[in-house]
Amino acid sequence: MPPLSVVVITLNEASNIDAALASVAWANEIVVVDCGSTDETVALARRHTDRVSHRDWTGYGDQKNHATGLATHDWVLSLDADERVSPDLATEITTLLEQGPPHRGYRMPRTTRYLGRWIRTTDWYPDRQLRLYDRRVARWSAARVHESVRVDASVGQLQHEIRHHSYRDLSNHLATIDRYTTLAATQLLDDGQRAGLIDLVVHPPIAFLRNYLIRRGCVQGVPGLVVSLMNAYYVFLKYAKLWELGNAQHGARDERSGSSS
After folding, report:
1. pLDDT in tens, 7-18
2. Cβ(28)–Cβ(51) below 8 Å
3. What is the pLDDT of residues 191-239, one digit of tens each?
4. Which of helix, strand or coil describes residue 107?
5. For residues 176 and 5, what is the distance between their CA atoms, to the nearest angstrom?
6. Entry pTM
7. What are phi and psi of 149, to 5 degrees?
8. Looking at CB atoms within 10 Å, which of 36, 73, 107, 122 has the fewest?
């Protein structure tokens, strides 16, 4: 069986890190890279592994590439601090490695705990994440947000779930949306995209209808409705911030042009 390293990046995850690392205690190695936690994250991580180090924040993808590079073993499972590997997924991974994996990367579904329910509808599910990979043919992207790992070989699918505990409450969800939409809008601007009235008016309602009706958020009661509305709000805020950034950029160019004439 190829040995497995689990890698986790952290910042102030004291409420999550203990359960996250306990869920992968079966792995051959756990590597934690912290970027300056001021709570008990580091102390709690050291209860599970002596492979805990500090690195200043350089972005999600770069931080995960660094953590992957610190691993002793080539097969890596990347886990976020607010995630847990379910017992069924742990068994599926160990069985796969024992039998000899035919692919060099594996996606797995992820379910999120939200407002007292596991969400298995909307855009949140199955939310397949490529987290198990052979690092010799894999690398994380440099995207500002929603980073992903690219595997230069065939990729397979696992059946069992990662369990995601991403939001403490609605206020925490809104704060996360605010932070992530800033990163997403900046990434879009860097990629040369701009937003206009159509994006603000059309895309959010489409996102709501897709989440609530097509992807069946309606069958999960109030939590399904809230997730659908929050996902639509995310889309609206992302495009509103992109419009704001583009407008500011255009204004700065006009100002420079006026001052030089």
Report:
1. 999 999 999 999
2. no
3. 999 999 999 999 999 999 999 999 999 999 999 999 999 999 999 999 9
4. strand
5. 29
6. 0.90
7. -100, 135
8. 36
User: How many whole angstroms separate alpha carbon 38 and alpha carbon 159?
Assistant: 37
C-alpha radius of gyration, the chain, whole number? 20
Q: Could you state, in order of their start, the residue ranges of all structural domains in the chain?
A: 4-164, 170-254
HEC-encoded secondary structure of 160-229 = CCEEECCCCCHHHHHHHHHHHHHHHHHHHHHCCCCCCHHHHHHHHHHHHHHHHHHCCHHHHHHHHHHHHH
CA distance 65 to 33: 11
Which CATH code, of 3.40.50.970, 3.40.50.300, 3.40.50.2300, 3.90.550.10, is assigned to 4-164? Answer: 3.90.550.10
pLDDT of 56-74, one tens digit each? 999 999 999 999 999 999 9
Q: Peptide bond before 126: cis, by omega within 30 degrees of 0?
A: yes
DSSP label at 26?
T
